[in-house]
Structure of Related to flavonol synthase-like protein:
Amino acid sequence: MSSPPSFTEIPRIDLSLADKPEAESLLLQKLRHALIHVGFLYVENHRVPDQVITNIQNALPELFALPPEAKAEVSLGRSPHFLGYSGDGTETTAGKADRREQFEFATELAATWSEGLPIGERLRGPNLWPSAYPELRTIVERYIEELTSLGERFLKLVAKALSLPEETFLSFLSDQHRLKLVHYPADPGAEPGVQGVGPHKDSSGWWTFLLQASPPHVKGLQALNKDGAWIDVPVIPGTFVVNIGQAFEVVTNGICKATTHRVLGGPLERFSVPFFQGVRRDLTKEEAVGRLREHFNQPEFSSGSAEPEEGQGIDSAFLKGRYDTWGESQLRTKVRSHRDVGRAFYGDVFDKYVNDD
């Protein structure tokens, strides 16, 4: 069976159809197509309260307008868990500096790592909260709570769309999910195609749920289709953009591929809020590759779409790297992206992680 033509727009999935028995089969059919042939989709009627979304959107300009000393108080450089603030140009993607500043948060958990435990467990830990904006914690924690719930509801539909029991993917989830609040500064003199974030696949989670928190006329996000063309992912109010992470590609035996995407900088400032659904840090390659292999080797899944050449070159630290657990492969990725933090907290493995390819 041949694959359908490469996508030229991002499909929209109406999650309210899951509550209507007569419409669920159509929903699952559309979702299955998006999973296997696109890897990117919008979800609408997602049941995340409007006020929760409005609160976090309204917080963004105030948060990024904080003075340098308030941002420095919660610098990522203070956190062995890679949580906190990082400035414009301090993170790299595809070997080049990204034009963005960001605050990274996670499900609020205590640090429990001690000598003798797997090193990947060091990623588990508490957030840094800016004292100059005390209201932020309540806003962020409520948002993480709602997106955690949405993510679990969505995974049940994904399982059904892929002919699996609806609870199948929940056992892969971590106790800690991550959230970024991102600001792409305006660059009136930007050259066409300037990097906001370079081409990449999401390596930080199971699935990503992105709130594009700027008005519809502010563009930037693009996904790479199977023909190697960049397709705009415009802002659609009331939706989240949802895309596959690398761990999910591994577990589905490559049937549901993580789609390469990028963000272009431009003359207008842009805000976005990606939520990365966490993967168990103790997940091994053997379990990830083998647990559902037989299911996804069935003939019904033989028509997954090929991947463009540019996407094939994206690093897959978990599957192709030297480290057996998801936790350590994630730690390696974080160290390579934020080398100042890696040098400060992970001197014993820093050289190994940055030179292992």
